[in-house]
Amino acid sequence: MQWTGLNDLREKYLSFFESKDHTRMASASLVPQGDKSLLLINSGMAPLKKFFLGQATPPNKRVTTCQKCIRTPDIESVGKTARHGTYFEMLGNFSFGDYFKTEAIEWAWEFLTKTLAIPPEKLWITIFESDDEAEQIWEKNIGIPHDRIIRLGKKDNFWEHGSGPCGPCSEIHFDRGEAYGPFDSFEQASDCDRVIEIWNLVFSQFDSDGEGHYAEMKNKNIDTGMGLERLACVMQGVDNIFEVDTVQNIMKHISSIAGIEYKKDAKKDVSLRVITDHIRSTTFMVGDGILPSNEGRGYVLRRLLRRAARHGRLLGVKRPFLTEVCDTVIKENANAYPELAEKRDYIKKIISVEEEAFAKTIDKGTELLNQFTEKLTAEGGKVLSGDDAFKLSDTYGFPIDLTEEICEEKGFSVDRDRFTELAKEQRARAKADHAAKAGSSWADNSIKVDAPSTVFTGYTDFEANDAEVLAIYKNGIEVETAVEGDDVVIVLDVTPFYAESGGQVGDTGMLIKGANIASVDDTIKSEGHFLHIATVEQGSISKGDKVLAQIEKDRRMAIMRNHTTAHLLQHALRIVLGDHVHQAGQLVNEKACRFDFNHFSALTDEEIAKVEDIVNSEIMAAFPVTMQEMPIEEARKLGAMALFGEKYGNTVRVVTADKSVEFCGGTHISNSAQIGLFKIVSESSVAAGVRRIEAVTGKGVLELMNSFKDTIIRSAKALKLANINELPEKCASLALESKEKDKKLESLTQQIANSKTAALFDNAKEVGGIKIVSARMDGSTPDALRKLGDSVKDKSEAIIALFAGTLGEKGTFYCVCTKEAVAKGANAGSIVREIAAVTGGKGGGKPDGAMAGAGDIAKIDEAMTKFEDIVSATIKK
Within 10 A of 299 (CB to CB), how many other CB atoms are there? Predict the structure, then answer.
């Protein structure tokens, strides 16, 4: 048995099974493909489930993999022990109806005892209690002594998950020796971690109906799993995964940054383990395209990153550092996962952005949480209220799990039930607000039309002659006739009107029968029927009428220009920003193109300019835009981009605009030159990891330019400039002049305030050996109050000063305590908090200086009168 590095172990395993006619498959992405039952891939078998279930054909009946895995049920335990981790690699060999127990057992034994030279006497075997077949193979074929084969029950040695394929397991265990405890029995040695499981062989031979009935399967399968890091522990003679070579190298880098050593301080060891594990997980997750967010796998990533960043601070690392450690993670895994090195800049950018954002959050949140826990301590409480926890989360973005973790460290718990209640109320309010803003259509989508599906002709035609009125609905009730003034829903057998879908708005236009006219204000779709939201403008429209259905051509052309532009925009963004860019939502109408996409930071002016240049170059190239229907597999071979989360049928519509190839059911122009011009109006954030670009095309660009020109001319007139070219210099001159005036005003205000402050000490009161002074400074900004207070803070005697001021309708309190006053028990944070509470305001801060906002400014004088009593109650007697 020879020391073997983790990377060598991985290669030895995969090569061994290749020699047994297995096909080596690359690790699947951590993001499950087509499996909604999993948030993240958590086992070697998970990506291969489709082969076991017969949903897809494997490349070979024998397969071997080393699969990246994430398991998160015990995130809180990671770091506290050396056993828990979130990221690991699972070695596996699989048979899809080919070999079975004999080969699986014999090859496992051969690999362990021959290839790795593990002494046979160190290995123990467990089998399912009724699996005589496995026992005979272990005894007769392998030669394992009968007393080294342990029979265990269904809980330990039978793999089953609901209904479907299942079967008994046989596990191979390694005895780590007397250093880990005595060996009184197998169960006792397992409990004390002297004996650890290293390989699980699952024999899928039954089909369960989920009700206790097991039918023998005709085609039996093999599914094995061996943790790579755990195997490395055995081969390297170390206690846990954090001491394995590749993992230890990551920890050493963290230790170097923090200036500490592992196993010198138990508390710091916890932080080292947390960071080491979490940076491994996050590097691989980001490498597989996962972005930080507030839900799903994105939230798992965000939680791991923030937990790692916080433990860096606990080690004294105040600057962002995780991207540095990320380099080591990539280096240690580059041979097996070269894509990490290829995506290095992208991975580091996302981690850097998230870590820097959290640095701002954690400082504000920690300060407020400390105030809450200080108050709890003073009151003898043990539970942080759900209201306070929710405030931390809602106002400061401080994660609830982090609040709970910090509180637990300090001996407090959190009222999670109340927090959850408040979070639900907030979501309900947000949902109601969204509904109110979106409005509600009187044209109810619940209308059930008893007629054949509408035939849509709008891809090629702008009007349809002799379209038959199949149904008319007024207030949700079917009617025979609609007369002038009626708001109705009209269903036609054939229509050129595009129904709102895929981010493209519905068409507007007219339905005409001679002198009878209905104007269509919108078009939506319901179960195959196009619903024309219309108002009868003249005469009447009846069921059975044949009408001319005519869309508003100029509007549709503008919409088509913007829709095709959305495709060109996505293509350009992927060129400039990277292949991680995918559509996250869009809205195209006649006025603009709004495009949401996955990206982790704001676009620079240079990036925006590049995107505009690419799109405009494609417009000027005047290439054809084609639309084809084809089998979905053929579309995928062309590299057509699909919308994430969208379900497609066997036949799809593919829109090709030069190098942009996308699945799309919308309407488009026929040549890029028809777009005319393209201009980005704005770029902003709409959610974590999602950016939004709003742009205009064609006449919209001309309107935008004219609007800019009008603004410039009006601005020049307001400044009495004869030449608009002088505008930039004039604006700069005015800004400088204003800034100088502000400085002079601030200086004069400070001089007046200082003179008032000097007079205060002439009549200062004394409480417990401390001078106390207070004054109102209305018209002063919070910053001016702070400067005024800080001028007192440096005095050499014991002084507590309270300043209050109003500016408009807002009021502010600022309290300072000199060093000598703090030594006597004074605490500015506690004092200003109680003062502000009199007015219904809130605030706090450090013992030597703290600020609070006033609630009702009419009560400021009342609060000031309580200053002496509050000081008396807080300082040491």
Answer: 16
Report DSSP state, residue 48.
G
d(CA 792, CA 795): 6
Provide the pLDDT for residue 758.
Answer: 65
- CA separation for the pair 622, 564 (Å, rounded): 13
Cα gap 712→719, rounded to integer Å: 11
Total residue length of the chain: 877
Q: CA nearest 472: which of 494, 450, 452, 496?
A: 450
Question: What is the helix (H) or strand (E) element at residue 10, kind and residue range?
Answer: helix 6-18
Give the three-state DSSP class for 523. Answer: strand
Per-residue pLDDT band for 749 (boundaries 50, 70, 90) equals: low
- pTM for the model stands at 0.59
Question: For every residue of 454-496, which 3-state class applies, written as one string?
Answer: CEECCCCCCEEEEEEEEEEEECCEEECEEECCCEEEEEECEEC
Parallel, antiparallel, or unpaired for β 593-598 and 690-697? antiparallel
Q: For residue 429, what pLDDT band results from cuts at 50, 70 and 90?
A: low
Asked if residue 208 lies in contact with residue 214, where contact means CB atoms within 8 angstroms, the answer is yes
Is there a contact between 526 and 471 (Cβ–Cβ < 8 Å)?
no
User: What is the rounded distance in angstroms from the CA atom of residue 674 to the CA atom of residue 564?
Assistant: 10
Identify residue 780 by its one-letter amino acid code: S
Q: How far is CA 343 from CA 14, 330, 526, 573, in A?
A: 25, 10, 43, 17
Alpha helices in 492-583 (DSSP H): 553-577
Q: Which residue has the tokens 């900004």?
A: 781
- Amino acid 615 reads V
Paired with 62 in beta bridges are 95
The tokens of 52 are what?
């076991």
Question: Do 559 and 501 contact (CB within 8 A), yes or no?
Answer: no
Under 8 Å between Cβ of 549 and 494: yes
399 confidence band (pLDDT: 50, 70, 90): confident
User: Quick one: pLDDT at residue 1?
Assistant: 80
Please state the φ and ψ torsions of residue 49, each to the nearest 5 degrees.
-55, -35
Instruction: Compute the mean pLDDT over every residue in the chain, rounded to the nearest whole number.
Output: 89
pLDDT digits (tens, 9 = 90+) for 149-195: 999 999 999 988 766 778 999 999 999 999 898 998 999 988 888 99
What is the 8-class DSSP label of residue 677?
-
Residue 544 phi, psi (nearest 5)? 95, -15
Task: State the residue for tokens 């691989």.
Answer: 284
443 pLDDT exceeds 70? no
For residue 28, give Cα distances in angstroms to 7, 68, 87, 338.
18, 7, 14, 14
Whether 510 contacts 550, CB under 8 Å: yes
CA–CA dist 873, 19 (Å, integer): 81
Specify whether the CB–CB gap between 541 and 472 falls below 8 A. Answer: yes
* Environment class of 645 (CB within 10 Å of its CB; exposed 0-12, middle 13-18, buried 19+): exposed
